[in-house]
Design a protein that fits this description.
Length: 315
């Protein structure tokens, strides 16, 4: 549970932030962005500092509790030492794991779902069937509000050719297909005939079966078999997380200027925030999140939609 925060009340947050980053730069790796965000990378862990109207916000992370304590102590000691004109108090929150930061509370969840376009009978029936047929695996299905967002995004880019990586039972496929132009088509990729067969009848009931082409097999093979020219208008990636970087690269190369790629689950249940999680898919997602923000081919925004949704638009 190596995550902890502190909000230090002060009228000089930007000043202390710069002092701390500058001073610790002699013994650690530090960064100061133009937006006033400072990062201090110590051997034991990392502390991010931001200044706002309420004071100086500190976010400490480490691989374990011992490392977290060392980061907290180093930052707090130096910060208090700089404050010669006021007495600062650095009160850290109890350590938590990244997974404890994820998810919406029931009140917010209910309010969101009550204030977006509701699923029609075809989508609701598919959601119910998926839940009954797959049990706990049904959590892989996008929520109704995210499905409505996919339809809207597809319409906003006037998509005629869409690609989906990860079909599951096809709820998101219906949502994307419904947003396509009249002559549009969706290529959706999955490896499971069992799961996709659950949803295929719903494509007929939703009136979009003629727009959807399902390719069973490794998605990378399907993507690499596509023509090299940039013809994809919109893509949605929601499959095995370790392969996200490869899926993203194959798609961006084929995305037309102004086209959009949406990547689901970029928070991984909050585990991307927590350096204690070091499995292959955690590392791959953290790496991809950094790649996208620095990718000059796109402009991007990461949204706190459900389990994190990144939108990247081809320049």
């Amino acid at each position: 549970m190596p995550l902890s925060t502190a909000l230090v009340a002060t009228d000089r947050p930007a000043r202390y932030l710069k002092q701390l980053v500058s001073h610790l730069g002699h013994k650690a790796t530090t960064q100061l962005s133009g937006s006033g965000r400072g990062t201090v990378h110590l051997d034991a862990g990392t502390c991010v500092l931001t200044a706002d109207s309420e004071g100086l916000c500190l976010i400490a992370t480490a691989m374990d509790i011992e490392g977290l304590n060392r980061v907290q102590d180093a930052v707090a000691r130096h910060l208090v030492r700089f404050a010669t004109q006021e007495a600062l108090s650095v009160d850290w929150t109890e350590p938590v794991a990244g997974e404890d930061l994820a998810g919406l509370g029931p009140v917010v969840d209910d309010y969101l779902l009550a204030h977006c376009t509701p699923p029609d009978d075809a989508l609701q029936e598919l959601a119910d069937t998926t839940r009954e047929a797959t049990g706990g695996a049904s959590r892989m299905q996008v929520s109704a509000d995210e499905g409505a967002l996919l339809t809207m995004l597809t319409r906003l880019v006037n998509a005629r050719f869409a690609v989906e990586v990860g079909t599951f039972t096809g709820y998101s496929s219906v949502c994307i297909a419904r947003g396509l132009a009249a002559d549009g088509r969706l290529l959706t990729c999955d490896i499971s005939d069992e799961w996709t067969s659950i949803g295929r009848p719903s494509w007929e009931r939703a009136g979009v079966a003629d727009r959807i082409e399902l390719k069973l097999g490794p998605a990378l093979d399907t993507l690499r078999a596509l023509p090299a020219e940039p013809a994809i208008d919109i893509a949605f990636i929601d499959a095995d997380k370790a392969n996200y970087p490869a899926y993203y690269e194959e798609i961006v190369q084929r995305l037309r200027p102004g086209g959009l790629v949406a990547l689901d689950n970029v928070f991984l249940g909050g585990r991307v925030f927590d350096p204690a999680y070091q499995e292959e898919h955690h590392l791959a997602m953290r790496r991809l999140n950094e790649v996208i923000v620095g990718d000059e081919r796109v402009e991007s925004v990461m949204l706190p939609v459900r389990d994190g949704l990144t939108l990247a638009r081809k320049r």
